[in-house]
Amino acid sequence: MQILINYKMTTNKTFTMIKPDGVANQHIGSILNDITAAGFKIVAMKYTQLSAEMAGKFYAVHAGRPFYNDLVSFMSSGPIVAAILEKDNAVEDFRTLIGATDPAKADVGTLRNKYAKSIDANTVHGSDSNENAEIEGNFYFTAFERF
Ligand code: IDP
Ligand code: MG
């Protein structure tokens, strides 16, 4: 008898936003190209704009941090692209692809290194855990909007 164990502490989905600076600076096409070239499949996507109230809810975990109010006003300042991405080890691999929170510290070739100008306008969001990927995907998309 053969027993095959596929033991992977991973999930295959993460959630991303192209933030208002990425959209305003005309980087949507380049960023989506980089994301798909890195092996991620887009399984849900929408072009939308957050109200301040919704941005506050999305980033509720940061309420009370000194940058919270600026973050909420920036994230509601213009349109964004929200998407669910699929790939083996999606959360960790996507965090590697986007680079450090501060673009000045992001590795060369990462999305924040290539497209972002500052820590508060850092162009791309990526979920930091499988649990948050699920919560954040559900924040934007219904079951009928995923493929
Ligand atoms: P992450 O986006 O790399 O996961 P978080 O610590 O979760 O970073 O912070 C969420 C967002 O809040 C960041 O992407 C950035 O836009 C903003 N932010 C984080 N730290 C600072 C800061 O020290 N100054 C200004 N904005 C910040
Ligand atoms: Mg984060």
Account of the 3D structure:
It is a single chain. This protein is an alpha+beta fold. The protein has one domain (13-140): Nucleoside diphosphate kinase-like domain (Alpha-Beta Plaits, 2-Layer Sandwich). The chain is 37% helix and 16% strand. The structure holds inosine-5'-diphosphate and magnesium ion. Inosine-5'-diphosphate binds next to loops. Residues 62, 67, 71, 101, 119-120, 122, 125, 128 line the site of inosine-5'-diphosphate.
Quick rundown:
With 147 residues, the protein is an alpha+beta fold. The protein has seven helices and four strands; from the N terminus they run E-H-H-E-H-H-E-H-H-E-H.
> Strands of the largest sheet, in order across it?
2-3-1-4
- Through-space gap between termini: 37 Å
> Which consecutive residue ranges, at least 5 long each, have pLDDT under 50?
none
Main sheet overview:
4 strands, antiparallel
- CA radius of gyration: 16 Å
| CATH top level assignment | Alpha Beta
Strands, total number: 4
The percent range for strand residues is 15-25%
Helices and strands, with pairings:
Blueprint lengths: L12 E6 L1 H5 L3 H10 L3 E8 L3 H7 L9 H8 L4 E7 L3 H9 L12 H5 L8 E3 L3 H11 L7
Antiparallel strand pairs: 1-3, 1-4, 2-3
Helix pairs in contact: 3-4
Inosine-5'-diphosphate binds next to loops.
